[in-house]
Amino acid sequence: MRRYQKKIANEYIQLLEQAHGAVKKSMEARDEGTVLDLLGQCQEAAIQLGTMIEAEEGEGFATVKLLEDYCELVFQVYTLVTQKQPLNPSKVHKQLKKQLIPIDNSIRQDIQERLEVVFLPYKVSMWDSLESVWMAAQADEDCDAYVVPIPYFDRNQGGDFGQMHYEGELYPEYVPVTNYEDYDFEERHPDAVFIHNPYDNCNYVTSVHPFFYSSNLKRFTDYLVYIPYYSTSGGMSEGQRRCPAYYQADLIVIQAEKYRKFFDEALPQEKLMAFGSPKFDRVVRLCKNPPAPPEAWREKLTGRKVYFYNTSINGMLGNTEGFLKKMEYVFRCFEGRKDACLLWRPHPLLESTFESMRPQYKPVYDTLKRYFMAGDFGIYDDSPDMTDAIVHSDAYIGDSATSVTSLFGIAGKPLFVLNNNIHTAPKEDDWRGEVIRGFFVYGTHEWMVTQGNKLYHSPGKDFQYKYCCDLSEYARGDYYIWTVRVNGEDYLCPANAQDILVLDRQGEGGNWIKKRIPLKQRVEQQGAFYGAIGCGDYLFLIPNQYPAMVRYDTVKGEIRYFEGGRDVYTGIAANGDRRMGGYCVLDGKLYLASPTDNRVLVMDAATGEQQVAAVKAAGAKGRCALVSDGREIWCLPFEGKTVVRWHPQSGSIQEYSNFPDGLAGKDPVHGHECEERLFGWAAFYGDYVYFSPGWGNMFVRLDKKSGKMAEWQPGFGRQEKEKNGYYISWSRETFVSPAEGTGGEEYLLYSPYDRKLYQIGLKTGSSEEIRIGFEKEDLLRGEAGFQKGSQWLQYCCMEGAFNSLADFLDGNITGHAFDKQSQLKAYGSVAANHDGTSGEKVYRFVQEKLRNR
Fold first, then answer.
1. Protein fold of 564-657
2. Crossing angle for the helix pair 89-109 and 62-82, nearest 10 degrees?
3. For the residues 208-213, what does the mean pLDDT come to?
4. C-alpha span between 192 and 654 (Å, rounded)
5. Which of 310, 374, 418, 799 is most deeply buried (CB count within 10 A of its CB)?
6. What does the domain layout of the chain look like in residue ranges?
7. Across the chain, how many H-helices and E-strands are there?
C-alpha cells in the first residue's frame, strides 16, 4: 500500500476512536438520534477503509476480515439501540475499542508500506542530475518511482512565454517515462517529488510550465526535494544564493559542506544536506564502463586526441562579441590538424539565449556554426546527454564558470580553461598584459602580487621587480593584491583571502612574510574585499562579500569588525550589477560613498562612530571615487557629468558640470556609449584639478578659481584601445600618486591599454615612461601550468601568453605537467560521495525521512 494511503488508513483509525468517545457521551446523555448517526458513520468509515485496503492488498486480506468483524459489532449495537435495549455506555465503548485495536495493529504490521516518488526533469540534458537518485528508488522493491518529464517554454524578449518544448521522447530507453498529462498529482499525492529547476517564474531564458513551479508542487507532496541541475568546481554564482524553490523545498542537496555559506542565511540549515552531486555518479559509472561511440563520430575520433569544447551561457552573456571572436579563434586553431578532433557541445540553451537576450549577435553565431559544420576538424554534439561526449573526450577546453569543468575534474581528464578575450596567438611581450597588474592609489608600489599569488619586490623602488615567494597553496585566485604602508610597516591586504600579511622588505633568508594576521572566516564567495586604506594608526579593509569592514590597529595589534553601513557603500545598479562606492580618508575620518545615490558614510577612524552625510548634486548618481586634496573631497560620479567639491567640515558643496564638448563614455566590456564612470581619479597642483578618464574619452583640467574646464593632454601618445586580448582592461589611463621628490608637480600615471607607467608634469605637460621590469626566468618559473587554481576553480591549466591553446594541443605546457591523481584529489575536496554513490545516499535519506513521518 502507498505510504500516503496508509497515512489515510491511520487517520481513519483516529476518526473511529474519536467517534467511539462521542458515542459514549451521547449514550450517557440519552441522545438516541446522535448515537445512531455516529454508529452509521462508523459503519460507513469502516466500509470505505476496507474497500481501500482490499483494492491495494487483495481480497481476503487480514485487516479486511477484522474490519468486517468490527462492522458486525457496530451493527449489533445499532440494532440494540433501535430496539431501546438497556446498554451500558462504558461497556459499549470498551467493546468498540477492543474491536478496533487489532485493526490498528494489522494496519501497522500486516500492511507493507510502499513509497511513491516522482522525478520532474524538464530538459533531458539535465536528467543526469536526477538519474542516480531515480536508479536507487527504482531498485527499491517497496517504492514506485515515476519519471515525468515536464514541458517548458522559451521566453520572448518581452519576457512572455514563447514556444513550448516537451522532451519526453528523448530519454534513454531504460528510463520509463510517464506523460505529465497522465499523472494526476492531486489524486496520487506522491510521497516525494524531486526537481532540478529552482527558478519558477524567475528565469529570463526559459520557464517550466507554471503548474510545476515549486510553490504549486508543494501542495501535492509531503516532501519536495531540490537537486541542483549544475555541479561546481568550487564556486557558486550570486544568482544561486536565493531561488524560489529553496523556500518551498524540504531538502536542498548541496555538493559539499563548504557550500552552506553560499545560500541565503535565512534558510533553515537542516534543509541543506551535503550529499555531493548525482551528476558525478553518471560520469563515474560510464567512465568505468564506456559505451561505444556513436557511429557518426567514429571516423573523426579514430587516431585523434579528442578535445571537448564547451561554450557556456555565462561566457556568451559576459562579453558576446569577445565570445564569438573566441569561437572563431578556436576553430582556426583546430582547422587542418590531423592529430586533434574538436568535439563542440554548446550549452543546450545557448541558441535560445541568443534569441531572447542577444538577438543582434545571433546571425554571427549562425555563420560560425555553419563554418564549423562544413569543416572536417570536429564533431558537433547536440545530443540530449553530454556524458557520452565526456566519456569519449581526452581533454576539456572552454569556460571556467560551468558545471562541465567539474565533470571533467571528477573524471580525471585535463582541463584547459580558455580566456575569451584572447583571439590571437601570443607575441613576444604579451606576457606584460597578464603580469603587470596596475598600481594602487593608496598603496606602496614597492610590491606587486601577480601570476596568481606570487609576491614580487622592487628593492630599488624603481619598478624593477624580482620574485620573492608564493603567498598561497593555490596558484591563482587573486587572494592578495594591495600593499598599504602604515606606521612604517607594509601590510599586504586580501582581495579573496581572509587574513592580512605583514611583509619584510629585507626578506632575509627568503622570509618575506613577518606574520599573518588572521581574520574571522566569514565568507566563501570570491570577492571578499574590494579596497584597503590607512588612516593614522589604523588599516581598514573595505568589504565586498565579506560581511563587515575590518579595522586593524597597528599599534595595539587589535582587530575590530564594523557591520553597519554596508548598505551605504555597496549597492545594486539599475542593470543588476553589484557596485561599490569610492572611499578616502581626511582628518582622521574614513569616507565611503554610495555607488547608487548621494549618501556618504563618515566614520571616525579611532572611535568607529558612524554618520551618514548627504552630498547632493544634480545630474549625478552615486560616486565611483572620492579623492581628497588634504582639505576637501572631490566626488566623481558613477553616472552623469557632475563632479562635486565637498568641504566636510563646513558642509559646503560646489558642483562642476561645464565639461568640454565631446566628453563621452564607453562601456569597456559591451562597447556601447554611456555616461558611467567618466572619470577614475584626480590629481592636484596649484589652482588646478586634473581628472583622469575612467570610461571617459579625455582628461579634463579644472581651474578651481574660475570653474572653467578644458580638455588636457598628458603629453604622450595615448592608446585608444587595448593592445590585444592579453591586455584586457576595465578603464583607461589613471593617475596613481604624486611622484616622489617633485612636490606634487609631477604624478605617476598608468596606461592599462599597453601596461605602461609614465611620470607626468602637470604644470609643464612633460612625460617620461618608467619601464616596468621583470626577470623573464622568474616569470617562466612562476607559471603554474596544471595546478590547484583556487577554492573556486580546482586543478586546471589557464590559457595565457605562456600557455597558448596551440601550446596545449602540441603538449608544450610551461609550468607543471598534468597529473591525474592531483586532479582527482583536488576535485574530491569539493564533492561529498564523489565515488559515484551520491544518488543512493540522497534516496536513502529521503526514504528514512518519509518512513519516520
1. Thrombin, subunit H (2.40.10)
2. 170
3. 97
4. 64
5. 310
6. 3-109, 115-276+836-851, 285-427+783-823, 564-657, 666-775
7. 21, 47
